[in-house]
User: What shape does this take?
Amino acid sequence: MSELIFEKSHEGRRAVYFPECGVESVSLPEKYARTSPAPLPEVAEVDLVRHYTNLSRKAYGVDNGFYPLGSCTMKYNPKINEAAAALPGFTHMHPQLDEADAQGCLEIMYKLSRSLCEITGMDAITLQPAAGAHGEFTGLSLIGAYLRDNGMSARTKLIVPDSAHGTNPASAAMNGFTIVNIPSTPDGFVDLDALKNAVGDDTAALMLTNPNTVGRFDRNILEISKTVHDAGGLVYYDGANLNAIMGIARPGDMGFDVVHLNMHKTFSTPHGGGGPGSGPVGCKSFLEKYLPSPLVCEDNGKYTFFTPEKSIGKVQSFYGNFLVYLKAYCYIRVLGGTGLKQASENAVLNANYMLEKLRDTYDIPFEGSCMHEFVMSLDKLKHETGISASDIAKGLIDNGIHPPTMYFPLIVHEALMFEPTETESRETLDNAVEVMKKLYETAKTAPDTLHAAPVTTPVGRPDETAAVRNPILKY
Assistant: This one.
C-alpha cells in the first residue's frame, strides 16, 4: 500500500521557496485568522513528483486500455482536439469581455449550435447546461415553462420507461412532475399498449432514448411519438445514445420536441473524473422562446448575445463550459457529416461483433442484433456456479480491462452492459472476447479464484457491505 502524502511529511522540508513579497503585507482580521498552522504536508520536490507520478500510474483510464463502460461511452478522444482547446487565444479569454472583443468565441458557439441543430433535427439550442443530467433538468424546465405559459399546468405526469437512465425520473421530480413508469416488452422495446393506457389529459411528456438503454432501436418510434402528441404531451430525447445514430437518423425526425446531448460522451471530451462536461439542449421552434439566456445570433458577420422572449433564465454561470464546446466543434469539423456517420456505423459494428462472439457463451436476454451497446445476463451462471456479474467484472480487472457497466439496466438480472465504442480495433475486441470466455471457464472450474479477484491491484476486493455500513471518509 502506498503511503499518503501526509505520511511522507517531514517538518521543514519544502518543494518550493517563494520570493519575498514585493508589496505591503496585510493581516487578516483576527476573527478570520487560523489559531494554528494548516496541517499541510511538508515534502521535498522530488518526493512530491514521485508521489503523484506513482498515483497517476495506478489510475486507469481510456488512455491505458479498453474501457467498455456501457451507456457511458468511454471512447478514446483525439488529442488534437485537446490541443485546440488549449490555445492561448481561447484559454486567456475572460467571460466578462465585451462582445466586440470575443467575436471568435461567439462565432464558435454560434457555429457549433447550428451544427448540433443539424445533427439532431432541432431548430434552436442552448449550450449552457454543464452535463447530461443538467441538460435533462433544463429540457424539462422548457417543457414546464411551455405548459404553464399555455394554460396546461394540469399536465403533471411524465412518462418514463422502466429501462430509462436513473437521472430521467430524478430530473422529472426536480421539475415538479409526477413520474409514471411503463414496462418494456420482452424484446426490450416500449410497450405500446402500456403507453396508450398511460397517456391522457394529464400527460406532460415522455422521456425516451432511441436506441434505448438495452441497445435496441425502437422501430415503433413514430407511433410512440404520435401517441404522446395526440394526447397533448411532448416527447423528450435523452441523448445518451446519440453516438449510435449521428449522421444516420435524427431525433427531430423521430418526433422528439426536446433533446439533450452529452458532449463529453459523443463529441470528444474525456468522460469521467468529475468533468468537465457539457449537456446542450435543443428544441423545436415553438419552445425556442423559453431557452436559457443568453443565446448567440449572427448578423452580417457580427456575433451578439440575445435573450429569448420568455427565457427560463440562466442555468449555468456565464455561458457554460466553453473549452468543451471547442473540442466538440473540432471533432465535428474534422469528421464532417460522412465521418460522423462512419463513427456511428463503427460503434454499431463493434458492439455487434462482440455480441456475436459472446452469444454462444453468455446469456443474451434479447434476440437479434444490437446498436452501439449490448447487455448480457449472468443470472444463470450465478445460480450454477455462484459467480456473479460483479465477480466477472472484477476478474476483468486482473486481465487489464476495465469492467463494463454492472447491474444496469435493472430489468436484466445480473446484468453486464458492454459498449466497445467506435475507436477500438478488432484486435482489442478479440482480446476482450477471449478474456470473457476464459473467465466463464474459470467460473465453471475454479470459482474461488474469481471470488478473490482482483488480486493484481494496489487495493484488493473490499468488504462492500462493511464499506456501506461503516464508511471511513477521512484519514
Q: What stands out?
A: The domain at 345-459 is CATH 3.90.1150.10 (Aspartate Aminotransferase, domain 1). Residues 222 and 427 are 38 Å apart (CA to CA). The longest strand covers residues 203-208.
